[in-house]
Design brief:
Blueprint: E1 6-11, H1 17-32, E2 36-42, H2 51-64, E3 69-78, E4 81-88, H3 90-101
Parallel strand pairs: 1-2
Antiparallel strand pairs: 2-4, 3-4
Helix pairs in contact: 1-2
Amino acid sequence: RSASKQKEVRLSPVMSDNDIETKIKMTKNLLGEGAKVRVFVRFRGRQRAHPEIAMKVLRKVAEGVATVAKLEKPPGMEGRVLSILLAPSVVAKERERQEKSTPVMAAAPAANGTPTDGAAPVEE
């Protein structure tokens, strides 16, 4: 039995929506590999006075990955870091297992005699 993997994704309380979408895609990829993901927001200076802004960012990420992940640990402050822990959902694991068990068909030559590698057909 292998040890469970845990990855981290760092966010900022003042991220643009596009940056958040990029981090959501990254988190989905990590969850798809079967790793648990700790998503955290580190506060700097006066940002710590407004944890509700960071909660909004974490909520967007949690909603973005809701189809492939379940919330294992709710948002919590640890020093100047607000974090959540996401684990791959059972549905996502089942889907991945089914994809692995389905054999991949080898590329068969085309029925009309044209090559499938993109080369021009040779006339005889």
